[in-house]
Structures are given as C-alpha cells and as structure tokens.
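ASSEMBLY PREDICTION REQUEST
Request ID: AP-0331
Submitted by: J.K., bench scientist
Number of chains: two
Total residues: 738
Priority: normal
Notes: Please return the full assembly, not individual chains.
Input sequences:
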Amino acid sequence: MAECASAFHVPEASLRAQIGAVLGAWGFGPDAVAAGTDGLAYADLRGIHSHGIAMLPIYERWRSEGRFVAGATPSVVKENAVSALIDGGSGLGFLPATVAMRLAIAKAMTAGVSAVSVRRSNHFGAAGHYAVMAAQDGLIGLALSNTVAPAIVPTGGREARFGTNPIAFAAPAARSEPFVLDMATSTVALGKLMMAAYRDETIPLGWALDATGRPTTDATAGYASRLATPLGALPELSSHKGSGLAAMVEILSAVVSGATPAMDTTPGQPGDVGHFFLALDPAIFRCRDEYGAALDRLMEKVRATEPAEPGLPVQVAGDPEREALRHSRTGGICLPAALIRELEPLVARAGCEWHLPDHSGDPRHQGIS
Amino acid sequence: MAECASAFHVPEASLRAQIGAVLGAWGFGPDAVAAGTDGLAYADLRGIHSHGIAMLPIYERWRSEGRFVAGATPSVVKENAVSALIDGGSGLGFLPATVAMRLAIAKAMTAGVSAVSVRRSNHFGAAGHYAVMAAQDGLIGLALSNTVAPAIVPTGGREARFGTNPIAFAAPAARSEPFVLDMATSTVALGKLMMAAYRDETIPLGWALDATGRPTTDATAGYASRLATPLGALPELSSHKGSGLAAMVEILSAVVSGATPAMDTTPGQPGDVGHFFLALDPAIFRCRDEYGAALDRLMEKVRATEPAEPGLPVQVAGDPEREALRHSRTGGICLPAALIRELEPLVARAGCEWHLPDHSGDPRHQGIS
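STATUS: Completed
Returned structure:
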C-alpha cells in the first residue's frame, strides 16, 4: 500500500469508535449515531474517503450553522403498500436514509417494487451504502440524493444549479458480489479539485469552469469558482447528458419529496436535503437463480474484455471499492496523516475520547500495518 | 431553417402514411403498425432523425436477417399489482414497448409505482416516446433498453460490451411542458460518427476508439471500429461512470427480463432485445399541484441560468426537441434529400405506395415549405 506512506492504518473498530463518540457527543440520538457510524465507515472501508470520517469537520461546521436538529426522529408522513414519504426532521441524514431504504426493502419484499422519498434530511454519506442494503437482501436498489449547495453548472451556463447529485445502483448476483455503481453526476467530485488545487496541479480540461464559465486547466481557478461540470465534461463530449442526469436526480430527490432544491438552499437553515430510494425484487420478472446467474455471466464477460493496456483488466462497477475493502479488512483503513491531525482538535472540541492512532511520531511507524 | 437547404419538408400525415404503408406491407399486424408509426413519427417530429423513418432501411436488413416475427402478439408472462413481464414474440419492438408502458401507467395510477420489463423485443425507437407517455398521464416515467449489438467499450477495454443503452426520463410539470431527458449512455450516437466519417471530418477526442482501443480524432477509424465510448468519453473525464450507467441499463433491460445482453446477441436470430419501464405517481409523495409548481420553478431557474455565451440561453432536457416539434408542426418535418432517395427503392421493394415528396427535382423547391 504505497499510497499509505504518509498515512495511518486505522482498525475498523477504532474508526467506528471515533465516529460514534463524536456523533454522540454532538447530541445525536443512539439510532442516528449507529446509522451515521455505519454510513461513514462504509465509505472509509471502501476507500471512498471523501464520504467517510473526513466529513466530520464539514458536519461540525454545518452543526454550528444550524443545519442539524440533534434529537430529530424521522417520521413517516404518507405511506401506502409500495411507497412512503419520510420527514427527516433535519437530523443526521444517515438515519432517515437508512429508515427509508429499510422501509423500501420491506415493501418490495412483499409487493415486488417500492419507492420511498425523504425530505428535511441532511448529507447521507455514500449513496452506494443504501443501494447495497437492498442488494444484501436480494433486491435491486437505487439511491439518489440532492445536496446542500449547487455545484454542477448546466451545459451552456456559468452558474451552478444542481448538487453533485449521486446515483447509486446495486444489483445482487448469484455467486459473485453485487454490481454496485455509485457515482456523482459531476465529472469529478469537488474533493478531487480541492486536492489538485492544494498540489497546484494542472487539471484535465472539462473538470471545472473558471469564474467566467469557461473550461479551465487551472485547478486553483476551478476549485475557487466551485463550478463543476456535469458528467460529459464539455459540450462537444455531450455534457448535456450529465446535466440532464443531475436534473433528473434533483427532480426525484427534491421536487418529488418537497425538499429544497440545491439552488434554493439558504445557508443557516435546518437541513432540507431530499433523497429517493427504489427497491425492486428481480423475482417479480424471472426465477431468482436464473437472474443471478445471468448477472454473474454479464460481469464475468465485462471483466474478460480485452484490455486497452495489457495487464490492466477492465473492472465492473464496485470492483475498486471491493479491493479497497479487502485491504481495509486485513491491514486497516488507510487515512491520511493530515486528516488525523485535523480530527484531533475536533475531537477535543466535542469533548470525547481519542480512538485514532497517536500521530505525533512518524506515521509510517504507527497504526497496525 | 437553413439546415434544411438540401432537404424536404414533409407533412406529418405523409410521413405517417409512408411509415404505416411500409410496415403494413412487411406483414406486421395493425397494432404493431400503429405503434411503429407513432414511435418513428415521434422521433422525426422532434428532430431525432436517427430514430425516425431513417430506421426503415435498417429494419429492412434486420427483417431479411430473420430478426422480426411479423405476426407476433405481445403476451404477459407474469404479472402482479405493480409489475409485469412481457414477451414481445420478436415482433416490431414498438408494440410490446407501448403495451408495457401503458400497463405500467395503469398499474401506477392504481398502486402509485410500477415496473414492467420486456424480453424478446426489437428496437423500440426513441426511448423518450415511452417516458413521455407516462408524463402525458401525469406520471413520472422511466424507459430503458438494451440493443441488438454491443457498441460501448467499457473503460479500459478495447471491445464493445454494451449497447448504446438509452435512458429516458420524463416528469410532468404544472404549467410548463414536461422535463424530458432522452440520452444514449454512449458519448455520441453511432449515427453522429457515421455522418462525420462521410464528411471526412476530425472528431473530438473521446467520441470513439480506433481498432486498437485508443481514442481517435479520425472519424473514419472511429466509425469503422464501431467502438463507441461511454458518456464521460475518456478515463480522465470519468468515462467509468458512463460505463457503469450503460451496464446498469443492460442489467435492468436484459438481465432482469431474461432478454439477451447485447454482447451475447447472435446475428440472424429472432430479436431478443430487453426493455424496462417504470411509472411513478408523484401524488404518492405530495400534493400534485405543489409537485408540479416546484418542477415549473426548477425548470424556469435552470433556463434563467446566466449563460456562458451571452444570447445562448441554457436549455432544459427536452427543450431542443420541443423547438423541433414546433417547426415540424408548422413547416413540416425536415428530412435530408439523401434519405428520401434511399427510401424510394425500399418502398418499391415493399410494393406499397409512395407518400413522400417527389425528389427528382431541386429539393429546395419541393415539399410544403
């Protein structure tokens, strides 16, 4: 794990203990703490560090801005046999999102298909976490969310209008692990722009726009503007399609549920993010075994595609995260030393115990690796 | 309409008469002819000419290859209150697709949400046609399909694995016309590559790969290889996301229904394309009027985004097609003279009447314009 040279290998239990301690100290109830710990650990275990414990500094800021109602309990506003609308009460987003996906799963197991939408929520972590819940129960799952602030500029514009609006889709196979797509509808995450700006790197044309709305290769200009491009990157590469997908997610997450579209969010207001969850039992269409075997074959054939670069096999959505998960489970979760250093004063401010490695020495000699 | 200089303006009635005459002469039953005429005219009316009457020469070839069973009647294989599996009997794809979406709409109107999948179908035209059916009935609609041959190369590969696998999503608004996203999950359609190759043009890097799996700017090499890139175009612009979306559509269309994945299709076999339709009543979540007004506002704000180029306003998905529809309804459907010339011997072979303009003279002096 060469990428871990200035990083720590943190055991999963320590990571979970730290997340739980902070969320608990911030006054979130036990259910929210459990859901938040599961959700953030899901991401760090799979190498999606932008959606793991690194969110705590952002949550601390949102907390100070009044985005979170600490003791909120999600409530079902409206419900029928195949659908529900859940009000998250502006609590930690992980709880209403988890409740919603579990409800969608239960309904789909009885009826075959179900849709649950959520309003008055907050950031719910990696969307894949919820889609995977369905796949673990033998169902196809879809999880969408809008966000607290616009970042994606619709094709032809110079103002952000949509959140980075993720689409996660998971489908269970028979022998193989599930197909798991988890993607923002922007070309790249804002975190990738931030890292490139820190390193003063040149970025590929199409990652971001400068303040005038022109594509830029200057990471600093692209990150400063916070004008992310939709998937497709440039008009001549069909960025209008990514723009349309981002709008679709905004509609299903916010318009359908009554949440606030990212472009209408007022800073300092209690969270009103919207999510959308769909669960589908493949057995309503064909025998479960046949379906699972067909998905096994599809994924095997994609992995067996002749590669453009010999020795670099083609991957199926979910493969990189599964590889990271295997590494995390055997060698601990690889967290940058800079992140560990940023978390220490945050943990102190929360007034709770420190569960992460001591970062005062050389990080390469720390942790469990 | 400067783009119509070497083209004809064809009245909708003439276009429909010609499509219907050919499909009928080929032995398709009245329901299939009606569905096919509606579906192909939908596309031509909206300027999506790659999915309109220009499909007839391709259908003629597929017909000679045994892809179509002319007298096929779609049958419901499996059904519950919120779902159905339809067998298209390898007939014209428009009929099972129309039957499936109408069934999804009827079920969603009662239950709130529904999913209908189709196997043993063929090309169903523009996916948006089916999503729009739901929106016209006040529902949110999703329409997906795989295709008869692979075209999209998964990121890192040099072999096509997925069809151009479209995603169409339509959502009805209150005062405005619906939001209509209709996109292939490839960067561009094969038809765009073909046109660039005809014109010997340079294409943007990322539209297609050459035979070695490398991105090329040579339209002829890119069209000859038939190796299309997924949305995102290049690995550094996140083409793995488009690759994942194409796989998701392949799973929902073919794996779920039991149809044949594009990469497993055997030439000369009766059609076994798969489709997936979802219908969702927004009223299961919130008051229909509030939902519709929120979507009106969202679309208005997107259109009001400050443009990157002054005077070139930002469009919402569906706007270009609506503009083309207005032109078509007032001035006729603009069809290239070359297409009209290609259709004449086809119509003669089918042994039916000619309903399109006489193309022997100067096309600029023909038609109704």
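REVIEWER COMMENTS: The longest helix of chain A spans residues 94-111.
SIGN-OFF: pending second reviewer
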